[in-house]
Amino acid sequence: MSATRAEVCAVACAEAWRGDGEILASPMGVLPTVGARLARLTFSPELLLTDGEALLIADTPALGAKAAVVEGWLPFRRHLAMVAGGRRHVMMGASQLDRYGNQNISRIGGAERPARQLLGVRGAPGNSVNHPTSYWIPRHSPRVLVERVDMVCGVGHDRAAAAGPSVTRFHRVPRVVTDLAVLDFETPDRTMRVRSLHPGVTAEELRAATGFPLDVPAGVPRTRTPTDGELRLIRDVIDPAGLREREVRA
């Protein structure tokens, strides 16, 4: 079976949780949610998932469906305790993201007179310094992948290092998944690198869509495509309504 770009992105999101063990997965958005549920149904069965409110669920329902089996209660105070102890891995969005992994979801433009008001800082600082934080970007463009974010919400590697051990203890940005590529920060200076290009994406296309110089090594691999079994899970079990295709351009 051939996979769509959205389905390749779903598997790339799922891979962010590979090897995490018994940790709370907090996906934000359609593709991260498909990815987290796919990971739990395949290579990361110990992942903890919630119903989006205060219940830990034992089954893995389709998007929009109610869980049939509840295995625990996770009120806000207990959720915060998990967050503070590094036992959560969230995949957030980003209105802007720079080469060090600093994220902005608050405003576009200067503080005195911003051009756009966005979500606000929300829980991004606490997320990014207390547990692993990955990012999902459905439209890879120079407006999102920027040289410098207009406001720091999620903390990147340079700012975490400057703040010292109290911040770096749990700080980790394992993965950035976009509609063009998978990126990480596994470089000596902890700047963004290309981990893989999605099938059909060229190095020139990726560079043109990035607002800062991005090295694309000649031998960079392709993002893996879903197996037939994974495609059946995505299409028939997790997202039978095809919501994933609305989030990623064909």
Automatic annotation (TrEMBL):
Belongs to the 3-oxoacid CoA-transferase subunit B family. This is Acyl CoA:acetate/3-ketoacid CoA transferase beta subunit. PANTHER family: ACETATE COA-TRANSFERASE YDIF (PTHR43293), CHOLESTEROL RING-CLEAVING HYDROLASE IPDB SUBUNIT (PTHR43293:SF3). It comes from the Bacteria. Keywords: Transferase. One of its GO terms (molecular function) is CoA-transferase activity. SMART domains: CoA_trans.
